[in-house]
Amino acid sequence: NPFQRLPNLVDVQTMEKYKGANLGDLDPHVFAIADVSYRQMMNEGKSNSILVSGESGAGKTETTKLLMRYLAFLGGRSGTGGRTVEQQVLESNPVLEAFGNAKTVRNNNSSRFGKFVELQFDKSGKISGAAIRTYLLERSRVCQTSSPERNYHCFYFLCSAPSEDIKKYKLGDPSSFHYLNQSSCIRVDGINDAEEYLATRNAMDMVGITEEEQEAIFRVVAAVLHLGNISFAKGTEADSSVIKDAKSRFHLNTAGELLMCDCEKLENALIKREINTPEGVITTTVGPNSATVSRDGFAKQIYSRLFDWLVNRINASIGQDPSSDKLIGVLDIYGFESFKTNSFEQLCINFTNEKLQQHFNQNVFKMEQEEYTREQINWSYIEFVDNQDVLDLIEKKPGGIIALLDEACMFPKSTHETLSQKLYEKFKNHKRFAKPKLSRTAFTIQHYAGDVIYQSDHFLDKNKDYVVAEHQELLNASRCSFVSVLFPPAPEENTKSSKSSSIATRFKMQLHELMETLSSTEPHYIRCVKPNSVLKPAIFENTNVLQQLRCSGVLEAIRISCAGYPTRKLFHDFLHRFRILAPEILKEKNDEKTTCQKVLDKIGLEGYQIGRTKVFLRAGQMAELDARRTEVRNTAARGVQSQLRTHVAREQFLILRNASVCLQSFVRARLACKLHGFLRQQAAVLKIQKNIRRYFARRTYSQLCLSAITLQTGLRTMAARNEFNSRNQDKASIHIQSRWRRHRDNLSYIKLKRAALTYQCAWRGRVARRELRQLKMAARDTQALKVAKEKLEERVEELMSRLSLEKKLRTDLEKSKATEISKLQSALHDMEQRVEEAAAMKENESAKKAVEEALAQEREKISSLTSEIEGLKVLLVAEREENDVTKKAHANSQERNEELNRKVQDADEMIKQLNDIVKRLEETVREGEALLLTEKQQKEEASAALAESHLRDQAFAIKIEEAEKQITLLQENVERFEYSMADLQSSLTIEKQQHEASVVELAEAQGKIEELLREVGDADEKSTLLETTVQRLEERLTENDALSTTERQENEATKKLLNEVQGKNEELLKKLEDAGKNIVHYQDTTQRLEENVAAVEVSLKDERQQNDVIMKQLADAQVEIVELQRNLEGADKRNSLLQDSLQRLEESTSVMDSQLAIERHENSKLRSELSDARLRIDELLNEAQDNHASLAERDDMIKRLEENVSTKETLLLTEREQNASTSKLLAEEQLKIAELIKNIEEAHRKSDSLQTTIERSDSVLLSMLRCVFTRVLVAGVGWVTTCAGCTILSFFD
Fold first, then answer.
1. In what order do the strands lie in the sheet with 48-53?
2. Are the C-beta atoms of 241 and 285 separated by less than 8 Å?
3. Residue 943, annotated as binding a ligand
């Protein structure tokens, strides 16, 4: 196994090469074995088999694929549906690998079954069918796995299926299932279980398994997993068991649903047994251990039946040819295994390899014996290792290991220790069996490949394979047709009682069938070798490979072959290879046998034998013959080489002679060329002198032109610079004039503003005093308002008492009316009954009398009701009068409230004005504080003589702070007054709204009373409408009750509101008194502040003159700053001009560099052309020797070329001179650039000095401007001005 793809070794060309070739003529290859078996089958008409063996990971499966490819190549492309039989067999591999492969210690995809592929051929040698036979499936792996191995792939693929399938089969993580979590390895690197699941489903589709059958297959696989999670516990009775918990119950029910069988029957089949006795069938229970064994046997039986069904279905899809009598079988089976821990599986696998090794030994020995007898040579018996004793140790009955194991499994109390003791006692004297020293359960068997130590800990569990009749009947009765097909009904003799079998016995029977199949065919062997254990290419482990060769029996086969005559050659092949050793013997016309005999005698070999068709040589004799053959060939090669060297030397001599003749002719031609060149140089000198004189004249002329142009440019730049300076001066003067005019106008504006502010302050003080007087008058009017409010409250109380009396009267009237109405209704009802009785008895007279009496009574009642209604009318009139009185009182109260609102609004306006005045005074005070602070700083810096004024300022600041505190108190009082006024206004608006609502409701009540009066007047005329009028009266009375209740509520609300208004008015009066006091105090503080401000103005008058002087100095400084700015702008412009000139110089230098590069490129081209011309001249000279007739034409061409060369040389000279001139100009420009850099540095120094002077002037201006802007303290106005990068603090109104 190279562990990589090698397509060059297995392509069609390789197949063509090995097709029909004899075995041994070409390199060893899989195709050579397949070709031999195919030709042997066609020639002899006997079936052949190819046994592919090797350990896990050695490449057996890939070798099997290559064999089938080559056999399909030889047998044609006869397939169904466009697919060959070989393709159909390969397409079935994913399905068989999913259900029959698992991860082992040495291979991630190890086949755990033997596969025998039969390729069937017709008479013409075409493939007509195929079949796959499987042997020795490792059934115990379903229930028991050891770490780090895995169970079969299909379980993990199904657990990684899409979510729909997982929900359908009620699966989960693989680690949650008992059959999968016995090993720590759940996932394998390089294998994506989800993708492999989809690939397996696709392979099933390709094979022809329908969707329904696929669903049934994976239901059975999921059921096996759920069966493994069923646990058992001890029952109440002895030797009984029950389902352990709810989780086990869930898995039991799920397994029953997936298998579509009865869950109760499934439970009984696991924990109960039926025993047939002469008396009848007896049902017994089993313990938890027996139930677990029964469960595992059930799972193994299901899985093995499923695997057999898959193989049969694949064979059916591939198709077989029953008429074929020729086949080639390819056996792919696991090789010899020896791990650190070897269990029951390794014993079965190694037993199989022992069987195959015996078959191999017998076949090799038989082939050797047949060939020796066929060739009629003398030979003796060859000893080889016979492993029959090992086979007897394992399979012999009744004393073999398998028989003892089956016997132990029949007894329920047997353990692995008792089994080991039996084996120790039975085979203690056997040479192939040994007991390890430090173990009580292990034993060692000496196989042909080496000693293997087996651990018997799980032998009994893995060997048990119960075939229970109850299980058979349960699954045969399944509702799923697929499951019932897997378990067809058993024969009658098997259904009567439960039988148990072992895996080892079944394994031995299948192995016996396989050996019978192999014995009926002609075998061929391929041994696959794994080069390394890390499964990577280009790594070869010698010890590992030798161990595999020893285990596979290859070394033993080589020893057997070497013991006789390992080298065999046909007479023809031998003579074809070694005839050069005795060529004189071949001239004799003898047969091939005698010729071979003479050749060998001449060489002097001993121990060989001559057969009928072959020469048989001992080991090492072939190498001796090859050595002599190579020696003869070497001597012949030396003779050939000597002849070849003489021929080569002759050829070289002729070449040298021809070259010397050519060289002489070339030298003569070269001398003639030199003479011609001397004459050309004389002519060229004259041209060069002429061109040099012209060049010098041109250079002087160009220098004069350049100097004139430079003078002109200098004069023009001077004129332009002067004009530019004059324009800058005009612009600067205009700018200074505009600044001066702006300063003058600003001073006049400040004076006007200061006067306006003083006038405004005086006028605002006067207005504030007037408003204060008005507030005092308003405070006096509030007392009159209190008296009016008290009178209104008394009036409202009287009205409320009257309303309560009227309501009591109304309630009494309503009660009396209700009683009368009820009486009238009862009387009417009695009258109706009487009328009906009178009509029935037909007593007209009595009826008339009764009617007249009833009418008289009704008229009396109506008259009484009319009198009551008139009394109600009188009461309503009195109520209307009282309502009118209340309306008038309410109107008067509204007018008074409106007057109060007006006064409150006037007071609000006065408060607002006072707030404005207070704010303005606060601002003036703040400005005064800031200005005083600035004065303090200036006076401290100026001199210590102003200490007295500083103390005054401090006292003034203390007074201002006191005034500020008083102002804040005033503001708080004013705000409280505003809040109270706002509450009063809201309460008044609420009273207005409620009063309007009460007036509207009174009007509605009057309208309703008038309607009642109208209805009462009409009652005398229409007695028939008495009942309707009574009802209306009742309804209207109820409405009047509702109105009276609403009026009560409104009156109570008005009383509450009046009380609240009185309280608020009292609070307002108190606030007004406090405000008057604060205003008086505020007026005193304002007078004091005005006096202090007047004193400050007097103190500042003296400083104004000093400020005027400072302003003049400031104007002079501004003029100087403007001049400095102009100088800076001029320097900046010069710097920009210098930068432009530098850029131009850089551009000119870049242009010159590009021109130089172009000229160099042209020079290189000229040189190449010159070299080409020289080569052409040489060619022309050679042609001149051959053709004398074309000398004239060649001379003309030479002259032209010389002229071109002369012109190019002159151009080169001119270019060199130009390069020299450009280099001079560059040097001059570099000097100019250096001078410009110096000028720039001087300009930078001047700019630095200007910056220092500007900074000094800025500091001077700061000090001057601080003094100037103190003049605006009176107006309280400041501005932010920036000049020459300096920031001046300002104060805003």
1. 127-135, 114-121, 326-332, 48-53, 522-527
2. yes
3. no
pLDDT digits (tens, 9 = 90+) for 369-420: 778 788 888 776 666 667 888 888 998 887 889 888 888 888 878 888 898 8
Q: How far is CA 1276 from CA 487, 924, 1012, 1093, in A?
A: 116, 7, 80, 12
Q: How far apart are the first and last CA of the chain?
A: 101
CA–CA separation, 818 and 468 (whole Å): 102
Tell me the C-alpha distance between 299 and 754, whole Å: 115
* Mean pLDDT along residues 989-1004: 60
Report pLDDT digits (tens) over 1094-1107. 665 665 666 566 66
CA angle 1165, 1168, 1174 (to 5 degrees): 140
Q: Nearest 5°: CA angle at 1122, between 1120 and 1124?
A: 70
Q: Is 48 left (phi over 0), alpha (psi -120 to 50) or beta?
A: beta
Cβ-contact 453, 342 below 8 angstroms: yes
Between CA 1233 and CA 1238, with CA 1234 as vertex, the angle to 5 degrees is: 115
CA neighbor of 611 nearest in space, from 564, 678, 646, 662: 564
What distance in Å separates the CA atoms of residue 63 and residue 371, rounded to the nearest whole number? 29
Please tell me what DSSP assigns to residue 82: T
502 compared with 742, residue with greater pLDDT: 742
Report the sign of the C-alpha dihedral through residues 995, 997, 998, 999, in that order.
Answer: positive
Q: pTM above the 0.90 mark?
A: no
> 54 a known binding residue?
yes
Taking only the tens place, the pLDDT of each residue in 1029-1061 is 556 655 665 665 566 566 566 656 656 665 665
> For helices 30-44 and 60-75, what crossing angle results, to 10°?
50
Whether residue 388 contacts residue 625, with contact meaning beta carbons closer than 8 Å, is answered with: no
Q: Could you please report the per-residue DSSP string of 539-575?
A: ---HHHHHHHHHHHTHHHHHHHHHHS--EEEEHHHHH
Band of pLDDT at residue 60, cut at 50, 70 and 90: confident
Ligand-binding site membership of 58 (annotated): yes
Pairing type for strands 326-332 and 48-53 reads parallel
| Sole residue written with tokens 């503080």 | 1085
Spatial contact of 462 and 503, defined as CB atoms under 8 Å apart: yes
Distance separating alpha carbons of residues 525 and 105, to the nearest angstrom: 26
Q: Cα–Cα distance between 838 and 826 in angstroms, integer?
A: 18
Q: For all residues of the chain together, what is the average pLDDT? A: 77
Beta bridge mates, 127: 121
Please say whether the beta carbons of 259 and 305 come within 8 A.
no
Quote the tokens at residue 245.
Answer: 């918990």
How far apart, in whole angstroms, are the C-alpha atoms of residue 586 and residue 834?
171
- The pLDDT of residue 111 is 83
**Spatial separation of the C-alpha atoms in residues 101 and 112, rounded to whole Å:** 5
- Ordered strands of the 567-570 beta sheet: 567-570, 614-617, 609-610
Please give, one letter per residue, the 3-state secondary structure of 726-759: HHHHHHHHHHHHHHHHHHHHHHHHHHHHHHHHHH
Amino acid (one-letter) located at 705: C
Judging by DSSP bridges, how do beta strands 450-455 and 614-617 pair with one another? unpaired
Cα distances (Å, whole numbers) of residue 388 to 339, 385, 396, 702, 1278: 24, 9, 10, 120, 126
* Of 970, 956, 959, nearest in space to 916 by CA: 970
* Ligand-binding site membership of 660 (annotated): no
The CA-based diameter of the chain, rounded to the nearest angstrom, is: 190
Q: Is 59 annotated as a binding residue?
A: yes
| Length of the chain measured in residues | 1293
d(CA 430, CA 1280): 122
**How many other C-beta atoms can be found within 10 angstroms of the C-beta atom of residue 300?**
23
Q: What is the DSSP letter of 383?
A: P
Query: Any known ligand binding at 76?
Result: no
How far apart are alpha carbons 985 and 833 in whole angstroms? 68
The DSSP bridge partners found for residue 284 are 273
